Amino acid sequence: MNNPNTQAHQCFDLAAQQHPHLLRSASYNYPHRMAYEPLEDQNLQPQGQRLSISPMALWINLPARQFDAPLGRPFFDALINEINIRKELYGRRPVTQLLLRHPFVHFQGADITELMHILASSFRLSHRDNSPIEYCAELNLEEANTANMALLKGLGFNEFILSLPPSLNKEEQQQLDDIWQQAKEFGPDSLALRLPYGYPSQDLHGMRVLLDNVLELRADRVLLTPSSELDRWNLADKISEHGSYSASQFTLIYNAMRHAGYRAIGNDCFVNGKDSLAIAQNQNRLRRTAIAYNSVNASDLLGFGPAASSQLGSHYECNSSQLAQYSKKLEQSQLAIDKVLQLSPKAKACRVVADQLLCYHRLDIHYIENRYDLALSSLADNISWELNAEANMELMRIHNGLLQLTDDGVLRLLFITDTFLSGLLKSEFRE
Fold first, then answer.
1. Which residue has the higher pLDDT, 261 or 347?
2. Which residues of 169-196 are buried (b: 16+ CB within 10 A; e: fewer)?
3. What is the pTM assigned to this prediction?
4. Contact at 8 Å (CB) between 294 and 366?
5. DSSP assignment of 254-314
6. Mean pLDDT along residues 290-315
7. DSSP 3-state assignment of 162?
8. pLDDT class of 238 with cuts at 50, 70, 90
9. How many Cβ atoms are within 10 Å of 42's Cβ, its own excluded?
10. Predicted pLDDT at 28
């Protein structure tokens, strides 16, 4: 008799081979897949930012990998230079979301304390006035010891993400269990796990074992993240999340998380019903930036560090991913921006479409038509009919000008969103 688990894995793999382009993480593709216009003046700052007092998010992206030598003080000084340049334009805006990635891979507690002091002196950090915040530190297993977590808690962080390796041996499983219990003792508002997929070393059996460990911990959030998003400094490994086997992993994890009672935000962020993101989704106040969802009204993002992205109004910027180039430019008091793009008028409507589909799994057709003067109803009807027929199942339904995705549609969220954006960019404004 065939092993039921083997049969299930074969089914997942067969489905992925038939539709590999449908079954992938959606959150990390937007707004990057939309139509941009290159900004002619690369030094042009987004208009109105100096006067804006709306909440924003900060992202400090420190390399998570070990290099031949620690990054050390020169890199740290370059990061401080970047903060000092940016604070002149954005220092007045309240910071309601903060993500600090892998602070202890290259630096010690004293360095991180200094960094947070500089950030607090340069920006309006909100943890001191009891405003709702999501200040999150992401740690790998080697970083996540009691001393480091206690320091971060004292510096104002109220959320932790533990970033998992592609697989866990028995020693690492025990280490994860111990770290998890220690982290819970600090009483964070959210305790999350980042679950990677798409690595060449991963197979469906190993993913099932890793997933069982994740579900046993009952995390507040589980962030399913493609390997290409995590290993920006290790692209020589030929990592790809586009193949059928990677799609099989994605489908396996998505179904397991939904069956375990988690709510899907996007199709790759899974939260329990009491999580602040779930509550914000219920109350129609969920927001997203290029890196994360939030419940604290942060739609603009300011990124620091190599390969960090910024999302400022209709402008998008990306720092150089090359460490040497990043540090050299900042040593010369220049921002290490590698690319600056702006949304076209029609692409602004595309962003609203992507945000509604990712945050709420629905589309308010009448609102978008009236707000952007676009003919969307016929496009939505055609897409709904064609995709439902192609999949031979109901992926979405339309009633009274509101398009709603089914659970099968959420699984295929990337393809559905891409189809809408492609159609919108080809459509005409209404007469």
1. 261
2. eeeeeeebeebbeebeebebbbbbbbbb
3. 0.90
4. no
5. HHHHHHTTPEEETTTEEE-TTSHHHHHHHTT--EE-SS-EESS---EEEEESTT-EEEETT
6. 92
7. strand
8. very low
9. 11
10. 85
